[in-house]
Amino acid sequence: MKKEIKKSLIDRLDSGPVICAEGFLFEIERRGYMASGEFVPMVALDRPDVLESLHRDFQHAGSDIVQAFTYNGHREKMKIINREHLLEPLNRSALKIAKKVADDTPDGQEKNLMAGNISNSNIWNDKDTSQNHEVRKMFDEMIGWAVDEDADILIGETFYYAEEAFEALRSMKKSGLPCVITIAPMGENIMRDGVSIIDTCKELEQLGGDVVGMNCFRGPNTMMPYIKKIRKAVSCHVAALPINYRTTRSNPTFFNLPDHNGCSCPSPHKTPFPTALDPMQCNRYEIGKFAKDAYNIGINYLGVCCGANPMLIRQVAESVGLEVPASKYRENMSKHMLFGTDNRIPKHQIDYQDLA
Ligand SMILES: [Zn+2]
After folding, report:
1. Which distant-in-sequence residues (6+ apart) come within 8 Å of 135 by Cβ?
2. What are the boundaries of each domain within the chain?
3. How far is the CA of 196 from the centre of ligand 1 (A)?
4. Which CATH architecture has domain 9-323?
């Protein structure tokens, strides 16, 4: 079969916004196919139909990239849940599902890119480097499977050690594929090995990152200040994929975000993270504003991480001027039973608006 030539990631970014849905972990957990806390994407093996459906929903909502769901599908996590023997099957299944959906992009849409994915290993340690060579091996094996399964690009994400991100990018670059690399600094607002957020991104650009930026841990309020600085500090394309939660200056990430919303049944855990964050979610307009503001300062790679759902991805896409398949179902309040303006809405309903 003749291989179809897809428009490259960089060509797409050079000519406008590119949308990438992430945050599959929370969304699959919410749909009932993943154990919270454990957070391993066994869904790729247990219920490939569910994972395929998730990708199709995000594609319909405007995602230009189908990112294989291999986040936490690495050797270390598989060891923790005693499933190391399923490491390669899980990775290959997730990649094949992503490829299938990308190849099935509906007519009229630019063909989706399929992305292989690596992420934070959790064993990288700048103080005791004895296990860091294991991390390199984990990156290399996952990238090998992604290349094998015909990924169009690679995404390395959610790194909170600068050196781990550098190492990930070095592994990714060996593939020759376009590389997106995004960091996720913890609440100290600096990488855990002491490198500043901006210096980390500058170095990632020097190492050949095609797109550098931030994803996860931070909501719009605490990601935007850094995104602005990154945009000024690098000349490559910049990525911004916040979580969908109202993080604050005193709690810049969702890990320690308190619930001040009158919760009557607190989380059984130390913090609302990860199972009781619901009341701190952003609404769609906050996410849309973030995307628009970011796009206006020259950030063309946009998406949402944890807390993402298809409705929010549509909001991101529409906020930067895109029409997507799900735009067919965008809000239409003129037809609402109380708040509508259509001539058929009865007067006794409209008059009741303020009492409802
Ligand atoms: Zn996330």
Report:
1. 121, 123, 124, 164, 167
2. 9-323, 331-356
3. 21
4. Alpha-Beta Barrel (3.20)
